[in-house]
Amino acid sequence: MRAWGRVLTALGWAGVMLVLAAVLLALVTDPLGGRARKIERLERAAAIGEQVRKIRELESAENERIEKLRAKSAQEKEALGRQTAVYRGEAANDPTGQNTVGVDRLDRLLQHDRLVCQHASAGACDDATSDTL
To answer: Which of left, alpha, beta for 16 (phi over 0: left; psi -120 to 50: alpha)?
Structure first.
């Protein structure tokens, strides 16, 4: 019986070594493709990250453009207010409304009308700014 015990023990150790060799081989060779899938996931994540970065850059540039447009619009509205005050003063000095308008003043008034219409809704002043006067 003792001999059988020694043979089984030797076979047992050989089996354990065979199982360990198979496990090590599986870990080294990656037979199920786990590493390839992980690399693909990482590449997809990197591509998505790059797209998000580009989108944020575009968004930032667009926000800067909007801020510049708002600042320009505010400046134009301020200039328009100043010019309107000038024209109100001139109109107040002519209570009868009978003074004739010179060509230079007519051009300034038409330019003023155009500025007003630029800030109004589209098409609201098409007739008012025509140069057929």
So the answer is: alpha
